[in-house]
Amino acid sequence: xxxxxxxxALLDGLGKVILGKPEALRLLVVGVLADGxxxxxxxxxxxxxxxxxxxARSMDLEFRRVQFTPDLMPTDILGTSVLRPxxxxxxxxxxxxxxxxxxxxxxxxxSPRTQAALLEAMxxxxxxxxxxxxxxxxxxxxxxxxxxADFEGTYPLPEAQLDRFxxxxxxxxxxxxxxxxxxxxxxLSHPLETLAPVTDTASLRAMQQAVRExxxxxxxxxxxxxxxxxxxxxPDLALxxxxxxxxxLFRSAQAEAWIAGRDFVTPxxxxxxxxxxxxxxxxxxxxxxxxxxxxxxxxxxxIEAVPVPT
Length: 310
What we know:
Elements: H1 3-17, H2 22-33, E1 37-41, H3 48-59, E2 63-67, H4 74-78, E3 79-84, E4 89-94, E5 101-105, H5 112-116, H6 119-124, E6 126-129, E7 132-135, E8 141-146, H7 159-162, E9 165-169, H8 176-185, H9 201-212, H10 218-231, E10 237-239, H11 243-259, H12 267-278, E11 283-284, H13 286-290, H14 295-305
Parallel strand pairs: 1-8, 1-9, 2-5, 5-8
Antiparallel strand pairs: 3-4, 6-7, 10-11
Helix pairs in contact: 1-2, 1-3, 2-11, 9-11, 10-11, 10-12, 11-12, 12-14
């Protein structure tokens, strides 16, 4: 099976678990192929945790789940050193972060201190504890789920943490026919129970390398960069996208083009992923927030305003 056929099989398998959300599933696969972390944000009960589990099972990777709660401590994620009474030395016991796919479930229910424990792991794929730095397994992804910030018992993720997520994906409620199909499809068993792996670590790394080799002509790269830079000048934004956001848009556009079967990026690829890549990196100005503006609207306006190269 070719690499692109594997990617399509991955999409097909996820589509059997989460019905009627092809765009959201495609964005999740874009994040995986671009070697980035993904934030799944939506109301409870729409399948965020199930989707993360399905992704790990489809790729046959080591999976760990951490339920984030207000009393969760950083050591509960990263690990801790334990005294060995026999010889008086300390032994490091790795936490659940030492895996391939870490599901940070309801990440915004933990305290800011605990949320910050993931920053180094997400940026540098390593953990520093007791003066020693330990590399994480490769590949390593964080798939975090988050309830909307105005829900009771949540702590908004700081900008530095949000900026480390390559994409933010929203599932939304299913259409009536898909929801009816879900009721019958889970009557006897859950589709997740029969989901078979379609790739392994070596195949995934090969696909990620193929994505990095997708060509981006300079006019297209300048177009993607202009989309990012325009957010920094928009009157409705107090904070625009960072250079890390520009790199995220570049890599996500490469992955989008590769999934589409091309070895070059077009402006359309950047436009398709722009809202998911840039939206969570933006901060509305107070007057825009009071007026009911959304970050998605601002991204749409930026796409409309920036000239497309021909």
